[in-house]
Amino acid sequence: MNINGSVALVTGANRGIGRAFVDELLKRGASKIYITARDPASLSEFLKLKDSRLVPLTLDVTKEAEALAAAADAPDVTLLINNAGFAGFHGAISAPDLSTARQEMEVNYFGPLALIRAFAPGLAASGGGAIVNVLSFLSLVTMPKAGTYSASKAAARAITRSARAELSSQGTAIVAVMPVQVETDMGRDLPEPRLTPQEVAAEALDGVEAGADEVFPGELTRQTAAAFAKDPKGVQAHVAMVLPERV
């Protein structure tokens, strides 16, 4: 798929990796970009650009009705970027209750699933298009400090594979993007060094154009992925040392 001339929708576009995706899409010549966030006021910095290609939409990915409404409001989308995410950084056992785990599943798993289901018919009508699911390397290994987040991303990786198989007949490509720690508000409590959001967005879009199923953006991620391929138990044992604080 060629990004130039595409019509994209980015969830969680107001900051971090989502903002970097919008910047990169503009550079690569996307013809229209639906920028979404729960609070439309958080998109004000983009709107100051006065670029007619940027179209703001209010979207809470945890609400299926809003996902369906977004698909109706943006029927011309050819590239769906599921970027919105949430991490509470609690352990599975040390967390005070299940509220954070439920929120992580709502945002990180049910959100992308709802968006994929809502936009699939429109993508089919456009000739297939593509979907980017921003996951995490923690979809492959589990960090106890982010135990329930890791579980939500592992679930999202599973549904990515399933959706890819189900939508292959309509020509829709689905790219799983699995970075290690990124320099964002969400990632600030993770170990250094960290990737830049720009690295993640640029290499994810490279993957879309190359027809990749999976992208491990940044040299740091590629090194970690190579180590995991060679010794998955060893990498998991190392990551398992990052324990949560007791609350």
From TrEMBL:
InterPro entries: NAD(P)-bd_dom_sf, Sc_DH/Rdtase_CS, SDR_fam. The keyword Oxidoreductase applies. It comes from the Bacteria. Keywords: Oxidoreductase. The keyword Zinc does not apply. One of its GO terms (cellular component) is membrane. PROSITE patterns: ADH_SHORT. One of its GO terms (molecular function) is oxidoreductase activity. Belongs to the short-chain dehydrogenases/reductases (SDR) family. This is Short-chain dehydrogenase.
